[in-house]
Amino acid sequence: MATVPTRRLRERPPLRRPTEGEVEQAREALRRLDSAASVRLAIRDEDGSEGEVELPLLALTLLERALGELSRGNAVVQVPLPRLLDVHQAAELLGVSRPFVIDLLDKGELPCQIEDGCRRIVFEELMRYKKKDDEACSKILDELVAEAQELGMGY
Description:
Layout: H1 20-34, E1 40-44, E2 50-54, H2 57-71, E3 84-85, H3 87-94, H4 98-107, E4 113-115, E5 118-122, H5 123-150
Antiparallel strand pairs: 1-2, 3-5, 4-5
Helix pairs in contact: 1-2, 3-4
């Protein structure tokens, strides 16, 4: 088992691309995680005492994504999302314009809260809207494919 350098984990290392050695470590970790039912992390405190902690599924998913990017030689940035999003953040997550999100709010299609005079969207509400919208788009695409097949368009 490889050990983490003795720097404190709370310290932020400079953003950089991984070295070839780190890329290979990430690939090996991904191979091992692929069949893991759960993951326990060995921890050694500054005083030398050791212990373990089991990672929650969400942390494991994030770890796998990060390792996947590292194994391809990419740098990784962690971007936390607050529980309440502003209109700009919501637009970025949906991949749409800010005015489009404002229109959704004005029409009541996306619920919001007023906080300090600004509209805020609860993250879970935004994800509910996105899921519903993705499902509607998928249904329309399925209908278009079926129609194209009926018309012999080669799809």
